[in-house]
Amino acid sequence: MSYQTINPLTDEVIKTYDNHDDAYVEKAIAKGHALYKKWRNDPVESRAAALNKVADVMEAQTDELAKVLTLEMGKRFLEAQGEVAICVSIARYYAKNAAEFLKPEPIESSIGPAQTISRPTGVLMTVEPWNFPYYQIMRVFAPNFMVGNPMLLKHASYTPMAAGAFEKVVSEAGLPDGAFTNLYVDYDQVNHIIADDRVQGVALTGSERAGQLIAAEAGKSMKQSSLELGGSDPFIVLEDADLSEIKKIIGGARLYNAGQVCTSSKRFIVTENNYDAVLDMLKTAFAEAKIGDPMDATTTLAPLSTSNAKQNLTKQVKLAVEAGATLAYGSVEQNLPAAQFEPVILTNITKENPAFYQEFFGPVGQVYKVKDEEEAIALANDSHYGLSGVVFGGSADHAAEVASQLETGAVFVNSFGGTLPELPFGGVKNSGYGRELGRFGIETFVNKETIVTKHEPIDLNDAFGGFV
Questions:
Q1: Residue 458 lies in a domain
Q2: For 184-218, how does the pLDDT look when each residue is reduced to its tens digit (9 = 90+)?
Q3: Does the annotation mark 422 as catalytic?
Q4: Which of 225, 237, 312, 335 is the most exposed place for a label (fewest CB within 10 A)?
């Protein structure tokens, strides 16, 4: 596996990185494990100031860090600045709230005082993707740093500069050696790391196939795991929806980050009377998108992350059209240079079409016509994925009732979903399992240890219900 920084606007190779050898990996695991043994007896509060310092360093270096994302994976500079900002807020959120989340919980017990205490589990291995290079790291790093779990990172081969930049932030913030280590390694090395007894958990955000492989390796070694594997998120427009509100956000719901967002709206499911209007809105939003240099503030649609991503997405569109889908906007042939991609809208997609169950990771929108909300719910749930969704309706209460029937990890009513530190993030079905962010996000790799205190001898017949 070769780690390279390639500018997706021009396809220029900026830098090639040497992989870390097994000796370097061993030292990283050993440092992390030594730090875990020290941290496991330290109070959670003792790490809050250090995590706030990480936030301070990131905030002070916002523009520098954002430029790395723009150069390396093509993210619009304004969006890259926003990614740094959400990382800062996640770090501050856990620095402020972790002690409360992890405080001992008393339990009523018939045999004496009892409580659960939250303990770190050990070194974690994380495998992260290229679409939000800092945010994906911070979602795992911030809560687990507060817990006391040191972190090893294998980032995407497309974003080695961003991985190194995050490690540099941690170092400049003065965190102890071993708290966070970036590794340029291949998947064979990842498997060996997961199998190491000193490593006690693995978190992955990535493709469905990558998730299957990592989950299998974690299972072999009986390691805890958390997976976020993408989605084909529905955007439901009910009969009484306020179309003027939809018009404001429909373009961004699909085109933010060049459509390379697991939780972006990919399937627009619209009742018959609103179908033409919503389709026209999406066409207009796509037509108004300005494709160009992501450093240019007037650009609204940046290139895809790599030319390879462009080739794969172009092939998906071509196969969908060959299988009978209607090309309602855009072109099958993509003639823009490097990784730039002209938006596409597909309609009339049947269940027999391979596109029906696929995730299109880029600026491709699918629009479906349904007769009523029951059909909309059924269509939304007829998916291998279940990460997020949107429901628009005139009555927020009724739209929320519809939202509650969707098989997904989160639903946003009358708004397009974003990310906030306090909102749990994760999915069901092939979108993975486990949660990041919020209170749940700090509990994934925590040992909930039960402590029972009894000052008098216990009658085992009473304790075990007469089975002894």
A1: no
A2: 999 999 999 999 999 999 999 999 999 999 999 99
A3: no
A4: 335
3-state secondary structure the chain: CCEEEEECCCCEEEEEECCCCHHHHHHHHHHHHHHHHHHCCCCHHHHHHHHHHHHHHHHHCHHHHHHHHHHHHCCCHHHHHHHHHHHHHHHHHHHHHHHHHCCCEEECCCCCCEEEEEEECCEEEEECCCCCHHHHHHHHHHHHHHHCCCEEEECCCCCHHHHHHHHHHHHHCCCCCCCEEEECCCHHHHHHHHHCCCEEEEEEECCHHHHHHHHHHHHHCCCEEEEECCCCEEEEECCCCCHHHHHHHHHHHHHHHHHCCCCCEEEEEEEHHHHHHHHHHHHHHHHHCCECCCCCCCCCECCCCCHHHHHHHHHHHHHHHHCCCEEEECCCCCCCCCCCCCCEEEECCCCCCHHHHCCCCCCEEEEEEECCHHHHHHHHHCCCEECCCEEECCCHHHHHHHHCCCCCCCCEECCCCCCCCCCCECCEECCEECCECHHHHCCCCEEEEEEECCCCCCCHHHHCCCCC
Note the pLDDT tens digit of each residue in 290-304. Answer: 999 999 999 999 999
Catalytic residue among 83, 128, 217, 228: 228
Q: Which of 262, 359, 373, 436 is catalytic?
A: 262
Same domain flag for 246 and 206: no
CATH number of the domain where residue 369 is located: 3.40.309.10
Our count of domains for the chain comes to: 2
Q: Are residues 77 and 93 in the same domain?
A: yes
Please check whether residues 37 and 185 belong to one and the same domain. yes
Asked if residue 249 belongs to a domain, the reply is: yes
228 is known as an active-site residue: yes
The average confidence (pLDDT) of the chain is 96
Residue 164 confidence (pLDDT) above 60: yes
Q: What is the mean pLDDT of residues 165-177?
A: 99
Q: Give the pLDDT confidence score for residue 395 in this predicted structure.
A: 97
Look up the domain containing 105 and give its range: 3-229+431-452
Assess whether 100 and 237 both reside in one domain: no
199 and 239 both lie in a single domain: no
What average pLDDT score do residues 71-79 get? 98
Q: Specify whether 238 is located in the same domain as 319.
A: yes
CATH number at residue 209: 3.40.605.10
**Residue 162 sits in the same domain as residue 65:** yes
Res 118 pLDDT > 90 = yes
